[in-house]
From TrEMBL:
<dbReference type="Pfam" id="PF09362">
    <property type="entry name" value="DUF1996"/>
</dbReference>
<feature type="domain" description="DUF1996">
    <location>
        <begin position="54"/>
        <end position="261"/>
    </location>
</feature>
<dbReference type="InterPro" id="IPR018535">
    <property type="entry name" value="DUF1996"/>
</dbReference>
<feature type="signal peptide">
    <location>
        <begin position="1"/>
        <end position="20"/>
    </location>
</feature>
<protein>
    <submittedName>
        <fullName>DUF1996 family protein</fullName>
    </submittedName>
</protein>
<keyword id="KW-0732">Signal</keyword>
Length: 306
């Protein structure tokens, strides 16, 4: 009997040791492996034009703004409205994303430096409960960041990710002095993702949205919406001493968003990718979880609109 108990104890010890080895080696139970690590999709949109227009800050006043670089909707100008954007065309891969995206133009000396190819706009969950995120309401307008920010304000802003990046240089809160040949200057900046549930715009074009607090939306801004993150790449390298934004120094970085998605398409992407805990591309497909399918078809349209 004693010998049997001893063998049982030895067997349990082996099992426990093996279990500890599996845990320490990083192999986790299947349920843990399937836990979502991302909740996002992308809009990829190319540059359409440059203009000293801003239909949010200076509506109906062409030439009143500093110069902006526009991606997405091809018709965006000082007179743009939600209705005019819906009637326009787009440079985004999803043809039913007629939204307007813009940011201050970058100059090297007096020469405009335009981003090349599709630029990435992430739509992510900014709150811990990613299943609660809702689509933007049609016509929502927003300015993220401030052209009047000081360097310290830019550095400490809740939307700042790693500042300006090039090569192996990160956490630059103004343009780096120099970037390696063949590199480019990248900037990522995140938007607030809690909406007040009422206003499509506000007097300062910002206060109708707020950043989450401890991963949750507060009572004043109770509706979680996608967190935008513009990731813009400027093809400039070498000596950056003459590089500037139309709005000023690098820390004056900001951007604008005017929602003109087809509501059903945006809802499908939010539901499938953000609420579904996936790392989606522009058509709502997660290459790491191909069994989950895609929100849109090969033409980036809802299947019933092909």
């Amino acid at each position: 009997m004693a010998r049997g108990l001893s063998l049982l104890a030895s067997s349990l010890a082996v099992v426990l040791t093996a279990s500890a080895f599996v845990t320490s080696s990083g192999v986790e139970p299947a349920a843990a492996q399937e836990a979502p690590t991302h909740h996002e999709f992308q809009a990829n949109c190319s540059v359409t034009h440059h203009a000293a227009d801003d239909p949010i800050m200076f509506p109906g006043m062409p030439g009143a703004s500093h110069n902006h670089t526009f991606i997405g909707n091809t018709t965006t100008d000082a007179y743009s409205t939600h209705e005019s954007l819906l009637a326009g065309d787009t440079s985004c891969r999803a043809p039913d994303d007629k939204s307007a995206y813009w940011f201050p133009t970058l100059y090297n000396g007096d020469e405009i430096v335009a981003p090349i190819g599709p630029q990435v706009v992430y739509y992510k969950s900014g709150v811990l409960d990613y299943t609660s995120v809702q689509p933007f309401p049609p016509g929502l307008r927003l300015i993220v960041g401030s052209p009047m920010a000081t360097q310290e304000e830019f550095r400490s802003a809740p939307g700042t990710v790693e500042g300006f990046e090039c090569g192996d240089s990160y956490h630059n809160y103004d343009f780096p002095e120099n970037c390696p040949a063949g590199s480019q200057v990248n900037i990522r900046y995140q938007a607030p993702s809690c909406w007040d549930g009422v206003n499509l715009d506000s007097a300062d074009h910002q206060s109708h949205l707020a950043y989450p607090v401890a991963g949750e939306c507060t009572a004043s801004h109770p509706v979680p919406v996608p967190m935008l993150e513009y990731k813009i790449a400027f093809p400039v390298d070498g000596d950056l001493s003459d590089v500037r934004l139309a709005s000023g120094r690098g820390y004056s970085w900001h951007y604008d968003f005017f929602n003109a998605w087809d509501p059903a398409t945006l809802e499908a992407l939010v539901t499938h990718c953000i609420n579904g805990g996936l790392q989606c591309d522009t058509r709502g497909f997660d290459q790491y979880k191909p069994d989950r399918g895609a929100a849109l078809d090969e033409d980036h349209r809802l299947p019933d609109r092909a």
